[in-house]
Amino acid sequence: MSAVSRLWQTILKYLSVSIDLAVTRIEHAITGRKPMRSENLDLSACNLPEYFERPDTFYTAGLKPPDMEIKPRRPFAGIKESRFKFCSETETDCAENDAVCGRIFEARQMHGGEAAPCFIVLHGWREPGVFNPWHWLLGLLLARFGVNCVIMTLPWHGRRKPGGVADGDLM
User: Fold this and answer.
1) Please, which residues bridge with residue 83 across strands?
2) In angstroms, how far is CA 72 from the centroid of its own chain?
3) Within its chain, how far is the Cα of 81 from the centroid?
4) H or E segment to which residue 57 belongs
5) To the nearest 5 percent, what fractions of the chain are helix, strand and coil?
6) pLDDT by residue (tens digit) across 117-137?
7) pTM for this model (two decimals)
8) What is the arrangement of strands in the sheet containing 80-87, beginning at the earlier edge strand?
9) Which residues partner with 99 through β-bridges?
10) What does the DSSP 8-state code read for residue 17?
11) Secondary structure (DSSP) of 155-167
């Protein structure tokens, strides 16, 4: 990586963090909520450049595939929807946040079924997770047009946040 690209990366990271802090401070000033911060979530070891250059090395860093609980739901318009849940590799002091949950929409057999491409969809920051009509419709439409879809709830959002806290407050 050249010195110029490292400099740009540092500048963009500083801007991103500064904007996020400003937005959360403004929101807390408007709503009167106090942020809850956890100081023990340093994930910098998971963002090493070699993991992006050679993704297979990420999985040999002691991470193993999780045991996933999948609950199929009644098909709608020929599209299979399932809900999934598994324990996060990163443990926090909040049991709700340690359980990753989401939805799986399988494309119809006539559109490729298992051979169809797959999108992994993440909702936006401060959105209430994936168990709402908008994300159900998005997954259904993608599957209807031949794309398998996995929608995951981000940490500290939706069902992964403790009670009394707004979505994304703890990020």
Assistant:
1) 71, 103
2) 21
3) 18
4) helix 56-59
5) 40, 20, 45
6) 888 888 887 788 788 888 889
7) 0.61
8) 69-72, 80-87, 99-106, 148-152, 118-122
9) 87
10) H
11) TTSGGGS-TTS-T
Judged by DSSP in three states, 39 sits in coil
Confidence label for 71 from pLDDT (cuts 50, 70 and 90): very high
User: Quick one: which of 72, 69, 74, 109 has its CA closest to 86?
Assistant: 69
What average pLDDT does range 30-55 have in this prediction? 66
Interatomic CA distance for residues 75 and 171, integer angstroms: 35
Cα–Cα–Cα angle for 127, 83, 130, rounded to 5 degrees: 10
**DSSP letters of 74-113?**
--BTTBEEEEEEEE-SS--S-HHHHEEEEEEEEPPGGGTG
Whole-angstrom distance, CA of residue 75 vs CA of residue 70: 14
Tracing tokens 């491409």 back to the chain, one arrives at 117
The dihedral through the CA atoms of 128, 130, 132, 135 has a sign that is positive
Token digits of residue 23 = 């937005």
Residue with tokens 């998005």: 138
Give which of 158, 150, 152 is closest to 80, Cα–Cα: 150
| pLDDT value at residue 82 | 92
